[in-house]
Write a structure and sequence with these properties.
Oligomer: heterodimer
Radius of gyration of chain A: 18 Å
Largest sheet of chain A: none
Strand content of chain B: 5-15%
Number of strands of chain B: 9
Helix content of chain A: over 70%
Number of helices of chain B: 9
CATH class of the largest domain in chain B: Mainly Alpha
Order of helices and strands of chain A: HHHHHHH
Distance between the termini of chain A: 43 Å
Largest interface: A-B, 65 and 56 residues
Number of helices of chain A: 7
Structural class of chain B: alpha/beta
Number of strands of chain A: 0
CATH class of the largest domain in chain A: Mainly Alpha
CATH topology of the largest domain in chain A: Rna Polymerase Sigma Factor, Chain: A
């Protein structure tokens, strides 16, 4: 793949990549950062791109890898801050209004892997097969993860998240 | 059609991205400081005993001293680490002869995971001396094996870097490097997840790499931890 083709592809996918990253990371700057890192990675490896892959699979895989790692880093940082009880004044979110905030809150309870799959599935309408290739898992795992994610969301939306969360294994 | 489906479709609507996102991205330059791994390690003087690495310092001309096996291995791992190809050191460290308190502080610092940071106060608390943040700073300042024992992962409580033996530029570069590098990499062919830098991980092709945030996440989609690098130890699950 040459540079011009890559630039065209990047431009075509930028907004969809951005929305996935934004919805996973929650900050505009972090989302731009993630998309940029993913695109740089793909650009560096553009010679290795083989046409047997769909371009979207390739780009989304790079992006999910960056986002997942960013979430990992944040979680360990947050745990460290909690342990040392040095939590700085946290940004208080605006009061919840309407569906959008409910969805956001419900999604926050969905485990990371399932949340990522939900984002990819609903941003670009990716098929189960493509989701499986992006995250390197079986189609059946994709189906069960999506179903589980939606079940957690349904429960949170219907019961207002008051039920105790099941402990993570 | 399900109510949840509609909500999710509206929530993830791609048309909400700013129209200029592609242009903005093109304008953003990659300003993160980078290190030349080979050139940096070429200036390290590495001393080792039969039990492990004893001392790492910067000299005008780098050298290996003492036990060749450990020193050579440390040099190789340092190059991989600075090139972003490794997130942990497997070469042993020999801290014998250090004062008890300092050994304790360094052992606690070595437990901080790659990519994470801790404050001096938090580390003081972790070694059981909550009021000894200054002493912890001194113990870290006299760290005989910087980088391998990651004293650069300790920063001031207000978020500023604090002192670093190899200078603030190096500390920034190391923390930026750790921020860019993923730690847990799975192979979609084998369904095994390794620490970045494991011999098995280095053989995973670019198209087969899957990054995971934690071992628990990897397990939920059917991946198992590698039996060689044992990522379940040393990386928070």
């Amino acid at each position: 793949m040459n540079e011009a083709t890559f630039a065209r592809v990047a431009e075509e996918y930028a907004s969809r990549l951005y929305v996935v990253a934004y919805r996973m990371l929650g900050h505009r700057d972090d989302a731009q950062d993630a998309v940029q890192r993913a695109l740089l990675k793909c650009f560096a490896a553009r010679a290795e791109y083989s046409p047997q892959w769909a371009i979207s699979t390739w780009l989304y895989r790079a992006l999910t890898n960056v986002c997942i790692d960013e979430l990992r880093r944040r979680r360990t940082a947050a745990a460290g801050a909690r342990a040392s009880s040095e939590v700085a004044a946290r940004h208080t979110r605006p009061a919840p209004v309407g569906d959008r905030v409910d969805v956001e809150r419900a999604l926050a309870r969905v485990p990371r892997e399932a949340r990522m799959l939900l984002a990819l599935h609903y941003v670009d309408g990716l098929s189960f097969g493509e989701l499986a290739r992006i995250r390197g898992i079986s189609v059946n795992t994709v189906k069960s993860q999506l179903a589980r994610g939606k079940a957690i969301m349904r429960e949170t939306l219907e019961h207002g998240g008051r039920r105790p969360r099941r402990p993570r294994r | 059609m399900d109510h949840i489906d509609d909500l999710l479709r509206a929530y993830f609507d791609p048309s909400q991205a700013p129209p200029t996102v592609a242009v903005d991205l093109a304008r953003r330059a990659d300003r993160t400081p980078t290190l030349d791994a080979e050139a940096t390690v070429a200036r390290f003087r590495i001393e080792a005993s039969a039990r492990g690495v004893r001392r790492l310092s910067v000299a005008s001309r780098g050298a290996l001293a003492g036990d060749r096996r450990h020193a050579e291995r440390a040099r190789r791992e340092l190059i991989e680490y600075l090139a972003g190809e490794r997130t942990f050191f497997s070469v042993p460290v020999d801290l014998a002869g250090l004062p008890e308190f300092q050994a304790k502080v360094l052992a606690a610092a070595a437990q901080i995971p790659y990519g994470d940071v801790l404050s001096y106060t938090a580390l003081a608390r972790a070694v059981g001396h909550p009021r000894a943040a200054r002493a912890v700073g001194n113990a870290l300042g006299a760290n005989p094996v910087p980088v391998i024992v990651p004293c650069h992962r300790i920063i001031r409580g207000d978020g500023t870097w604090g002192h670093y033996a190899f200078g603030p530029r190096m500390k920034t570069a190391l923390l930026a490097l750790e921020r860019r590098t993923p730690t847990l990499v799975g192979s979609s062919t084998t369904g095994i997840v390794c620490r970045h830098g494991c011999a098995h991980e280095q053989r995973i092709g670019e198209a087969r790499r899957i990054v995971f945030a934690s071992i628990a996440d990897a397990r939920t989609v059917g991946y198992r931890p590698c039996r060689v690098c044992r990522p379940e130890h040393g990386v928070p699950s």
